[in-house]
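User: two proteins, same treatment. go.

Assistant:
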Amino acid sequence: MVDFLPKTETLNSVLTEFISVQQTRPAVAVTIMGKTFQLLMQKSEQATITDWVILSLESFLQQEPEERALWTVTALLLASSTNEILRNLLTLLAHWRTIPRDKLLCLLSTAAHYFHSNQCLQPEHGEPVLKLFMNSKYASLRTLFT
């Protein structure tokens, strides 16, 4: 898909499918998202990925129930990470219902702080990302940066 479609169409398709409430195979969806981001990174499209993450973050943060929001945001941030170690942790999320909440929050906190500190390189990116988390309807997301 990365080789045949424009990058914006590819990202839109992958992210839309990933957060779909009708998604019945989350393990497959998270793998596809991770591989798609990896291929785009190999084509030096990290800035495009970062922009799409920022644009998509609000939709991911609003997922219901809360556990799904935590999982989808964690997956998004791990898959888009410029840190290879964090990207490799994405495989842990394939079976998200078996991950204890405290471990998921730890992964999310690490990924969110890394994204904010290392990938929001333009000043106009960092503040909106913080505001999205701070304005979340879920207390667990609001407290990540406090």
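Protein 2:
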Amino acid sequence: MAEEKKNVMRDIKVDKLILNCCVGESGDRLTRAARVLEQLTGQQPVYSKARYTLRSFGIRRNEKIAVHVTVRGEKALEILERGLKVKEYELLAKNFSETGNFGFGINEHIDLGIKYDPTTGIYGMDFFVCLTRAGARVARRKVRQSRVGFRHKITKEDAIKWFQDKYEGVVLSGGN
């Protein structure tokens, strides 16, 4: 056999995309940021609370200061594509974690194709992408739980190669 067989279990795919919009205060701005995330994803966002009081920032413990939403499947790929288009498919090497995940931020949500609304304002947000391989469920299931082998785990180099192959992305050397 001249052609080499490809192992489908080694294929990397997007497990989930987390969109986070941290406003730093509760109230009207936070609900408008939640409306932006709901408009973008079509899902109900979840509010995040402050872990402790920071008087210099004017936030109190347990005060709602951010909203986030987790998107999976085809919708996650479509939103990720729009986010990477804003970044012009350029990421830094330090955007990739050692466990094979990566994240980046954008400054204005209107770059994603959402029409500007003066009553809402402009919000920036963080994109965080979790990559996985087929078979990663064995570490999380309840019955016959096992460990994922070292060779099956996604490394930083695997994630960078996947990003360059799938999106023809450019990874600039920056930090770690």
